[in-house]
Design brief:
This protein has 130 residues and is mainly beta. The chain has one domain (9-127): Sandwich (Immunoglobulin-like). It is built from one helix and seven strands. Strands 1-7-4-3-2 form a five-stranded mixed sheet, with no helix packed on it. A two-stranded antiparallel sheet has the order 5-6. A hairpin with a 7-residue loop joins strand 2 (28-31) and strand 3. The longest helix has 13 residues, at 115-127. The two termini are 41 Å apart.
Length: 130
């Protein structure tokens, strides 16, 4: 019997680096997704280190698409209805349609990579009892 691999979606959170200018359409490389601290390199200049956080409950991810307006056609006798045979667009109808696309159980939060992070990680490894 073959086991099916379960897809896992992860949200990449860049709020921790909001003060860094990331050029639009900049090339990026994301590595180490199967490690505790994945690395994100943007435009071969910006290096970020990530850390997974479990979500509380399930986060849903939605996409938004343009939706056709809802059109109502008036019916009834033409004598009593000035709009008979005309189409009326509902102004209260939303112009966007939202659809769920994935469920998340983890968020990958990034912060700027620095030498201090490397030193902290090596110090923590060196100080662990064997």
């Amino acid at each position: 019997m073959q086991e099916e691999e379960e897809e896992e979606y992860v949200l990449i959170d860049l709020d921790g680096v909001a003060d860094i200018h990331i050029p639009p359409n900049a090339p990026y490389a994301l590595s180490g997704l199967d490690t505790l601290n994945p690395i994100l390199v943007i435009d071969n200049k910006i290096k970020l280190i990530g850390e997974y956080e479990e979500t509380v409950g399930t986060c849903l991810v939605f996409n938004e698409t343009d939706a056709a307006p809802v059109v109502h056609e008036e019916t009834g006798s033409s004598e009593g209805n000035l709009f008979a045979g005309k189409c009326i667009v509902d102004p209260k109808s939303p112009g966007k349609q939202v659809n769920p696309i994935a469920r998340l159980h983890k968020v990958l939060k990034f912060r700027q990579f620095s030498e201090a992070v490397i030193e902290d990680a090596t110090d923590n490894q060196a100080n662990k009892p064997s």
